[in-house]
Amino acid sequence: MRAVDDVSFTVQRGEFFSLLGPSGCGKTTLLRMVAGFEQPDEVNHPRILLDGRDLLDLAPYERPVNTVFQNYALFPHLSVWENIAFGLRVARRPKAEIMREVEKMLHLVQMEAQAHRRPAELSGGQKQRVAIARALVNRPQVLLLDEPLAALDLKLRQKMLLELDLIHDEVGTTFLYVTHDQTEAMSISDRIAVMDRGRIEQIGSPMEVYETPQSSFVAAFIGDTNFLDGRVKALVNGDYCLLEVPGFPDLLCYNDKQKSVGDLVHLIVRPEKVELSRDPPASRPRHNLVEGVVEDVIYIGNHTRYWVRSGGHRLGVFQQHGRFLLDEKPPRWNDRVWLCWYADDGYMLERYRPQDETLQELQTAASTSSSPG
């Protein structure tokens, strides 16, 4: 099996571009190829172009790129100041320039007060800021970031994401970012390439890959998703179709894929698109309505997650707490409820292949990991 298989994409100057996918999908191998640490096989004449020049002709130290590693890779015997200055000294820059550029970087990453400390005296977030400053001080054309926040705890990751975004906006350097964390990629990227098994499944803005996934894998990997297998039963007014889904009444869906009667489809509905109520809601045009029983409830502060068994299917629902009233009794385990969603909020995709184990694992995890036992 190839680590990277027939991958081709373009990154714009100054863009924050992320490679997102599960472990082993080839994203780090791709990054290492750009850095020069790995060489692609000589098949189909591979090229890695930067401003029209093929980087494959250059050794790693000759390429106008720098890498920020997950483990920071700081020199433990050097101070913060000396770590940042290291690349400039290797390049034999004048002392005045080294002083000026290091001070700029210290200010950029807010590490002036720690300039004379060594890495062992720093927190994880501080080490990461030093690693970013050291990588940027030589003004590379592209900054490569290989899961740079993976070793940090949740709160620190969230803080570092904001700081990384601010740094990118200030320096304007092209960032190529590798992560398996969809939240990281969605919150910070201009565009995302979703990878699976060495191939790119989809490239687009965070909104595009979430709202209009181009494959069942992307729909399952990005966010939480309800999957329903069905068949097109009838076409309605040219723009919609009725889907026959076992266990459900006929479901209405926007027919953006121009499906025909008899076609097998994979219907996805995001949990936040589904409304949940104790009583049947008033009839609304172009809405789907199904009845079910609450199986699991998890309260998460700003919203509650429900899992409802309906027609033999287990559906996830996110109920946002815009205003939470203590005197209102929310649905509980084993309550009978109604689920409703707008026909345009359903999205039809191709049926996934039976041999696609990665997608099956993602779907199984989404439907079972929430269960409190």
What characteristics describe this protein?
373 residues; alpha+beta; Rossmann fold; OB fold (Dihydrolipoamide Acetyltransferase, E2P); six-stranded mixed β-sheet; 18 strands; elongated
Largest sheet: 6 strands, mixed
Tell me the series of helices and strands, N- to C-terminal. EHEEEHHHEHEHEEHHEEEEEEEEEEH
Number of DSSP helices? 9
| Rounded Rg | 25 Å
Oligomer: single chain
Briefly note the CATH topology name of the largest domain: Rossmann fold
Strand content: 25-35%
Provide the domain count. Answer: 2
Extended strand count: 18
Amino-to-carboxy terminus distance: 38 Å
Q: What is the topology, as strand order, of the major beta sheet? A: 4-5-6-1-7-8
CATH architecture of the largest domain: 3-Layer(aba) Sandwich
Helix-strand blueprint:
Elements (H helix, E strand, L loop, with lengths): L15 E5 L6 H9 L13 E2 L2 E2 L10 E4 L11 H11 L4 H14 L15 H13 L5 E5 L7 H18 L2 E6 L2 H7 L2 E6 L2 E6 L1 H6 L4 H6 L4 E11 L3 E5 L6 E4 L9 E6 L5 E3 L9 E13 L3 E8 L2 E8 L15 E7 L4 E3 L7 H12 L5
Parallel strand pairs: 1-6, 1-7, 4-5, 5-6
Antiparallel strand pairs: 2-3, 7-8, 9-10, 9-12, 10-11, 12-18, 13-17, 14-15, 14-17, 15-16
Helix pairs in contact: 2-3, 2-4, 3-4
Description:
With 373 residues, the protein is α+β, with helices and mostly antiparallel strands. The protein has 2 domains: 16-211, P-loop containing nucleotide triphosphate hydrolases (Rossmann fold); 216-368, RNA polymerase II/Efflux pump adaptor protein, barrel-sandwich hybrid domain (OB fold (Dihydrolipoamide Acetyltransferase, E2P)). 26% of the residues lie in helices and 28% in strands. The protein has 9 helices and 18 strands. It has helices spanning 27-35, 80-90, 95-108, 124-136, 154-171, 182-188, 206-211, 216-221, 357-368; strands at 16-20, 49-50, 53-54, 65-68, 142-146, 174-179, 191-196, 199-204, 226-236, 240-244, 251-254, 264-269, 275-277, 287-299, 303-310, 313-320, 336-342, 347-349. The strands form 4 sheets. It has a 6-stranded mixed β-sheet, sandwiched between helices. The longest helix is centred in the middle third of the chain and has 18 residues, at 154-171. The protein is elongated. The relative contact order is 0.12.
